[in-house]
């Protein structure tokens, strides 16, 4: 019986790997629905439970950057299979909430496609990354009034000539944040979505990015470059049938198998109501200014500075 199952699973599973790799090379065609694959077969095959142990969720144990690595963290990618967040969570973990689970702090977790959330330093209690600058939030910058009533906000608070809050470090949306649930809507709704995303990107910068020594342009260029292929891979898994919130673990597992440099630090969980997020270990090489998505075991090699020795607390 066991032999029969193995004989069935192994060739099918490796054929799926090939098809998925093929899909990744021509992902634009695939994403336009023109991928001439045997969708039903693929869907069934992708649902073979992938062989990964459970990942920590929703938080990983504190991350150890390493003795000679000053800064480490996680690249946070949203599969889009979560529930709340954004202007208006489309599904609701709490159906008695009258607002449609709008939390106005997180990105929209329920989306037709995956999207990068951000790149975070694992400072205490999440890990022993250092934070090079203070990241006290500017309260004017955290005020969401600008998103909903920009004219009223700009009468009371400083805005530039384009009507953007002066306290925003990022004035233009980085490429990987250009969109909301798919491309921006037309008209006023689209403008609302754009302002929300610009607020959100500035929130990411103030809360996370400022711990580094980079400027926002460099920081977000790296966020987009590092997340791009991974976001596209997750989209291709979703297109091929891993498209339910229960699949978040399987998606994380496939991602770590298809990209040898990916180590899952934690996932947001695979149950109803969670955020559908996948967090990948990463370290920052301060000499080159480059982040690396990598297993923690590779941090010293990729990001270590012999001149830096982490003080023991
Ligand atoms: C860094 O964090 C890890 C995980 O909490 C811990 O085991 C390690 O001792 C810490 N290193 C130092 C030097 O504090
Ligand atoms: C949120 O959803 C409700 C119900 O679908 C809708 O009436 C409302 O306009 C939405 N609000 C925003 C800000 O999108
Ligand atoms: C659900 O939402 C309602 C209305 O906002 C709130 O009173 C209630 O505490 C929420 N329940 C949970 C479990 O979050
Ligand atoms: C946010 O900005 C608006 C408009 O300037 C202001 O009325 C409101 O008091 C501010 N809220 C906070 C919490 O600062
Ligand atoms: C997702 O999975 C849950 C649990 O198995 C199931 O109840 C739900 O109907 C599924 N949703 C879709 C859209 O298939």
From TrEMBL:
PROSITE patterns to which the protein is assigned, alphabetical = RNASE_T2_2
**SUPFAM superfamilies (alphabetical):** Ribonuclease Rh-like
Q: Which GO terms describe its molecular function?
A: ribonuclease T2 activity; RNA binding
Record InterPro entries: RNase_T2-like_sf, RNase_T2_His_AS_2
What keywords are assigned to this protein? Signal
Signal sequence range: 1-15
- Protein's name according to its UniProt entry: Uncharacterized protein
- Species per Swiss-Prot/TrEMBL record: Symbiodinium natans
